[in-house]
Design a protein that fits this description.
- The complex is a heterodimer of chains A (191) and B (136).
- With 191 residues, chain A is mainly α.
- In chain A, 72% of the residues lie in helices and 0% in strands.
- The termini of chain A are far apart.
- By secondary structure, chain B is mostly helical.
- Chain B is built from five helices and two strands; from the N terminus they run αααβαβα.
- Chain B has a two-stranded antiparallel ribbon with strand order 1-2.
- In chain B, α3 (50-69) runs antiparallel to α5 (108-135).
- The longest helix of chain B is centred in the C-terminal third of the chain and has 28 residues, at 108-135.
- Chain B is elongated, with a radius of gyration of 35 Å.
- The N and C termini of chain B lie far apart (82 Å).
- The relative contact order of chain B is 0.07.
- The chains are: A mainly alpha (191), B mainly alpha (136).
- The interface between A and B is large, with 48 and 32 residues.
């Protein structure tokens, strides 16, 4: 489906056209749901969080000044919603297992991963992304999938730009280690 | 000492992109819209309505034009406002009741300004009243 610019739908919604907000939801539902899933690691809770984020966005649409991109604003709402849920769960730090580089990697493990079927590789990457911490998962998603700049990510997460860079670096490294472990397990058949 | 293997992460970005985004369950957006429809609908209105802006612009333009029109000429050096006749309120026959009340005299500019405010005030009040009355 061909969508128009976000501000068009925002203006229409402000005029009372509810259908326009529906289009806005359809346009961004995948992105918001993905961010929630990367942070919460749970399908049902991510669905609830994404829904709540959209409802909050609707309720506060009059406060959206348009100084930033609508997606930046929307992601900030979704990110905060997920953080709130994580705080309630109080296990956000328990999600990350201690990742170390001590194991001897099989030679050219990246090549091994490249050679996997695309669907298998995607599955493996998604599984590994789910093992990252909420922050790392969110930042990697925003940086690579949404192609947000460091400044935009900083605006979404309320972290300093240097903190974002550090988290991004750590997330990349942890993801590589997790992928390396998965490939290693596959290769030696001890899944 | 054994050197730790370095991890190349250059390829990760492309693979994350390839993995793509997640698809929400069926009926996801419909459920959101159903939730939103249950909320009290908000009518977003600008702080200054289009009519308000028209009145402000009209008022400023009137003042500007009036000022330009009444700018004193170089020859006379006299303010042209003075040419506007003074309006005197009718006198009551106070002498008959033996009461001393001061007479109010309003000069031209003051009278015009008061009239302009009154007219604009009545127009804006009428539109606000009309909008509120017909919306509710």
């Amino acid at each position: 489906m061909q969508y128009q610019e976000d501000h068009y739908y925002i203006q229409q919604t402000r005029k009372g056209n509810l259908q326009s907000f529906g289009t806005l939801v359809e346009k961004h539902e995948r992105k918001v749901f993905t961010l929630c899933l990367r942070m919460l690691k749970n399908q049902e809770e991510s669905e609830e969080a994404a829904q709540d984020a959209f409802v909050k966005a609707y309720q506060h649409l009059h406060g959206f000044s348009g100084n930033s991109k609508f997606t930046t604003w929307l992601f900030r709402i979704a990110y905060n919603e997920c953080l709130g849920r994580l705080r309630k769960r109080k296990n956000e730090f328990a999600l990350v297992e201690e990742l170390t580089e001590d194991m001897d990697p099989p030679a050219q493990w990246q090549d091994g991963l490249s050679e996997l079927l695309r669907t298998e590789r995607e599955k493996m990457i998604k599984e590994s992304l789910e093992k990252l911490s909420a922050q790392e998962g969110a930042i990697l998603t925003l940086f690579y999938l949404e192609e947000f700049s460091i400044k935009e990510i900083s605006s979404v997460t309320a972290m300093t730009e240097s903190n974002v860079k550090v988290t991004l670096h750590r997330g990349r490294k942890n993801l590589a280690i997790l992928l390396q472990k998965s490939v290693h397990k596959d290769l030696i058949g001890i899944k | 000492m054994k050197k730790k293997p370095t991890i190349n992460t250059d390829f990760l970005g492309q693979w994350i992109k390839d993995a793509g985004s997640e698809t929400p369950p069926l009926g996801f957006s419909q459920r959101i819209m159903a939730q939103i429809q249950l909320l009290p609908q908000r009518n977003y209105q600008p702080v200054i309505s289009p009519l308000g802006w028209k009145l402000i612009i009209g008022y400023i333009t009137t003042i500007l034009l009036t000022v330009l029109y009444f700018i004193p000429s170089e020859n006379s050096g006299q303010n042209l406002w003075s040419k506007v006749p003074l309006y005197k309120l009718p006198k009551f026959p106070l002498d008959k009741i033996n009461l001393a009340i001061p007479t109010i005299s309003i000069n031209g500019p003051m009278l015009i300004a008061t009239m302009a405010f009154l007219i604009l005030g009545i127009v804006s009040w009428w539109y606000t009243y009309k909008n509120n009355y017909f919306q509710t």
